[in-house]
Amino acid sequence: MEKKIKFAIGLLDYSKIRGGAERYLIDLCYRMADEGYEVHVYAEQWQEEDPRIHLHRVKTISFPKSLRLLSFAIRATRAIREGDYDITFGVGNTLEADVLQPHGGVHWAWFWRSLRVYDHPLIWFVKFLGRVFNLKQWVNGWIEDSPYRNERPLKIIAISDMVKRDMIHWYRMPEDRVTVVYNGVDVDRFHPKNRRYREEIRKRHGIGEEFVILFVSNNFRMKGLSFLIKALSSLKGKTPHPFRLLILGRDQQELYRRLANRFALSEEILFAGTTDEPEKYYGAADLHVHPSFYDACSLTVIEALASGLPVITTSSNGAGGIIHQGQEGYVISDPRNAQDLEEKISLFLDPDRRAQASLAARTLAENYSTDKNWKEMRAVFEKIRTNPPNPPLLKGGEGGLTVLIVRGRQTRNVRLILFGLWTLTFDIALSFLLQLYPKMFKCPLNQQFPEAVVLFGWEKLKKTF
Q: SS3 for 216?
């Protein structure tokens, strides 16, 4: 009998309800187990057990959040290392791995792009300082940076072309070291045939034959819901076509209910909460809109395409990289541009255009199935077992932390690193308080300076990011 390949992965929360990344990774674990791998998952908690998966509990320091993340990263990494596995798989929350596939994308790219959701300079500044003084942000960055400095990562997988570009930009990584493998979805589950649930879902939420726009997210702010509501307010004043915005996901609703009332959209907007049957909601909708400020590769976009829904998303969503402008949908550059968003939505009020886009969407999504994704992932796993280790990806302290701000020499001692970072936050805060619109230092962002603090002005940031 052939010996099984031992595979290990660290996941903080082994639960599909956490989000699209968790759904994908759990399904990948099941697929690997069915293909004959011996799958071991190291997690802080899980909802259910499956005999195919070997679950190992990792005890963490639950408070504060920064220590929870750090303690999980250190303990899970140590436990996996002691397990003597054939393949170790990192997704951004452990310190080393044989194969690295960060599903959150690049933390420092998210750090800056997601700040664009705050379009008022003063609010932007306050939120920026909040992140600077938030130890969790620095811990997240340090954990993400660690595998790039380690000799263990033999292969790096980006889940979209956008993430690959971010890796090259923020970590100065050679292009040939990164393989792009887009997420895959179950194209049988997410299928145009789910339109048979159209009447059921619409009746459940009191919807008739109106044009239904579907928004799916568990983070309303970062996925641009407020800007979508503003765009629909403009659309309402220009079109006689009745429409409804159906919001699927869990997040605080009250702020957006008030915003809907303010724009006289309280009748048009419906909050459906969470569901275990999202495919039925795709079947009930006419258009999927996902104006995200940052997504490594949104599964909801690919699920919508597979369901035959036209999609409107942004260039800050890695999944937008597969969409051909005007065919399966549209990719807009700025989610804050309500006029652009409103214009793109209005195009799909035309049933003929919608029907053409629906066919194109399904055809495109069939190229991003779970089967194809698994074949590409398996090829990486097989290659990783036959090729020798590569040298460390980063030397001399390059990476996300030094891209932003670096002071003095580096140290591998985590406590000293965090202490130094806290010292740096005061330097940054003082600089911003003294001059709200500082000039950008004329130096490369990726270059390390022993006693330098790189300052980003608001106007410069709007152009740069």
A: strand
